[in-house]
Amino acid sequence: MADPLKPPTPREQARARTIEQIIRLGREHLALHGAAALSLRAVARDLGVVSSAVYRYVESRDELLTLLLIDAYGELGDAVEAAVEALPADDFRGRFAALALAVRKWALSEPARYALLFGSPVPGYQAPAERTTGPGTRVVTGLMGILDSAYRAGKLAAPDAAAVVPALAADFEAIRSEMDLAVPATLLARGALAWTSVFGAISFEVFGQYGADTFSARDELFRHHLQILAGVAGLE
Amino acid sequence: MADPLKPPTPREQARARTIEQIIRLGREHLALHGAAALSLRAVARDLGVVSSAVYRYVESRDELLTLLLIDAYGELGDAVEAAVEALPADDFRGRFAALALAVRKWALSEPARYALLFGSPVPGYQAPAERTTGPGTRVVTGLMGILDSAYRAGKLAAPDAAAVVPALAADFEAIRSEMDLAVPATLLARGALAWTSVFGAISFEVFGQYGADTFSARDELFRHHLQILAGVAGLE
DNA sequence: GGATTCAGAGAGCACTGCTCTCACATCTCA
DNA sequence: TGAGATGTGAGAGCAGTGCTCTCTGAATCC
Description:
Order of helices and strands of chain A: HHHHHHHHHHH
Mean pLDDT of chain A: 93
Oligomer: homodimer
Number of helices of chain A: 11
Largest sheet of chain A: none
Helix content of chain A: 55-70%
Number of strands of chain A: 0
CATH class of the largest domain in chain A: Mainly Alpha
Structural class of chain A: mainly alpha
Shape of chain A: elongated
Low-confidence stretches of chain A: none
Strand content of chain A: under 5%
CATH superfamily of the largest domain in chain A: Tetracycline Repressor, domain 2
Radius of gyration of chain A: 21 Å
Number of domains of chain A: 2
């Protein structure tokens, strides 16, 4: 393990560059052919090297998948945060829409990588939680932040204040205290529904569940859903 | 091609039995290891036969995948229709919930097969639309039927009757006329949102997006979502 | 300058989908 | 009943996969 204080040796630099290249090539393969077709041998070929050589840099195919998972979460998180912060902090409804639209935009431009993050799990591959939960929760954290700010500003209210059942309230109380949120459980539950619904709509579109020619006005459809979901979440 | 009027010859019967066995074994492999890991050679081994022999019955691995896709759609459709029809035809809200709960129940008991139907597409595999759209649309047809019956009974109403934008209205008008529905476009759009939201919630749960221990009361969470989504769809 | 570390090559194992040929059983029909 | 047609399985083979192992040569360290 290299001492982080000392400057990197040429060898360490070359190594870092090679790993960078492997990730870049892996990303291209992933985007083109999907996760299950990601082949270390193909990456090695593109790198101009024999297959066994890449094992000097990447432990296994699953390890490369993990690197690409983190890479994709990072890119999505960046895109979403940039879109949200382009709007004033008190435009809660606008920020909610911006977040959802940014996720959708990224998903449609990177369907295979979106599938890796939010689609069916790759068989035999288990993402290591300790390395992926951080980057993987940036978007949901962003949403919760918007709802929390709205609530603190008195701009979040449920149409009807029916309390959630106790077992569910306990779950949301845990989230509330862990993320230091002011939003009560009832509204958090509605936020969770809006959250899953946004991803449901995006997944249907990306994964082709809508059918080839059912909807021609897909942008409008998504925006229509967002209008209603903002209301569901309590943003008025 | 065998004449459907004549009784099947012993050879045809044996052939049908073998195909049946292949589908059964394929289903087991699919459920155990997932779609991407479905191996014709492994099925052949379980069948006690050399791999090339299976190609006498199934054109390719993709063909087997198609058979399993249709098989899974059929099973899901049966389960959902049975659950819906167990309730009185005028209990629209109950039927809506029964439909969603049946999908969820099947999805949780058959995660790999659910993933094949509603998860990320298998790379390199394109389902033949002419053979899968029929069985694949049974559930959404069921939902639309419930909403349509409710509307015809005067039990479906939008909280606010804001019209959808024209481009979107055209899409829904096409669906309306093709499926012979009475529901107006505004309500159909809300039904579509409820539809995608139900699958979003189920996919999050099946694909592990909720995290290992975020929610302990998942049944209650889903029921909570359904309560709100029924309202979103206009079922009151 | 010698010892150590490291990158890459190449062979090999077990697996995959799929094709082709060959042998044999069964079925059809004159 | 016997000959030809048809169906079925075995086996070899091709090209691809992940991954391990050993060997060589080069860069680096002291």
